[in-house]
Amino acid sequence: MLDVGSNTVHLLVVDARRGGHPTPMSSTKASLRLAESIDNNGKLTRKGADKLIGTLDEFSKIAASSGCAELMAFATSAVRDAKNSEELLARVHAETGVALQVLSGVDESRLTFLAVRRWYGWSAGRIINIDIGGGSLELSNGVDEEPEVALSLPFGAGRLTREWLPDDPPGRRRVNMLRDWLATELADAGAEMLKAGTPDLAVATSKTFRSLARLTGAAPSGAGPRVKRTLTATGLRQLIAFISRMTAADRAELEGVSAERAPQIVAGALVAEASMKALDVESVDICPWALREGLILRKLDSEADGTALVETSVQRR
Hints:
Elements: E1 2-4, E2 8-15, E3 23-31, H1 46-65, E4 73-75, H2 77-81, H3 85-96, E5 101-102, H4 105-120, E6 127-132, E7 137-142, E8 149-153, H5 157-164, H6 172-185, H7 187-195, E9 201-205, H8 207-215, E10 230-232, H9 233-243, H10 248-251, H11 265-278, E11 283-286, H12 291-305
Parallel strand pairs: 1-4, 4-5, 6-9, 9-11
Antiparallel strand pairs: 1-2, 2-3, 6-7, 7-8, 10-11
Helix pairs in contact: 1-3, 4-12, 5-11, 6-11, 8-11, 9-11
């Protein structure tokens, strides 16, 4: 699976079969920061497109050499928001053979919810999920595998860092301005989510939430995916007061924060705080499965019942 996000391109080789647990076999990443390559006209620059095409070509060859029977390729907000996305997709296919599928924000939300539901099972009852990406925020709420409400909002950690927190460190005034703005912007979305029903379980997905949980004392990734990890609103408030005074370089020295995520972790924490407040939850469980697993599960399901997928597979020349 090739995942083209706002920050990274991620190749994940997975052993997956219907009824089985998708098992990661290998992982390869490249930090392209595509969202930062969008020009003033809203288009992905030639340089950004060149880097993406080179990376996709390299990663698809790695997948082939790894013996992958099939390779799915999908892109999220950075490519979705680019005004020249159709031109970019055509060029990607012509030069690499990769049929890159752009997911809508709502599909991101729905597929992430599917992964969360499969991870926790039916006994979890009504689940509400929060996922913070580089370019967008996804919210979902439901009791089945298909959420009753699925939203996608342009409040990603990378986007808000560029628009609201350009200084390093960001400064208390700007942090408070963004906090107040997010509270206002998320009020209606929170009300719409809760109208569907009060959750029995509040969940969070994404690298941003995993990093925030680690910074507030959750177990490291080395402890394995089945260790319970939580993030509390109280711990998050204390963390924001701490990391918002640090430079990105200093934040990158903290355990659980990568160098590429360090510049945007403050904005990510503010989005997490505002989302939890809007949804009236005091803590969230961190789910190790998210969008990629949702795509895999949906594909396996579709192969069994013959339904159409929202994603397409890579076609090799």
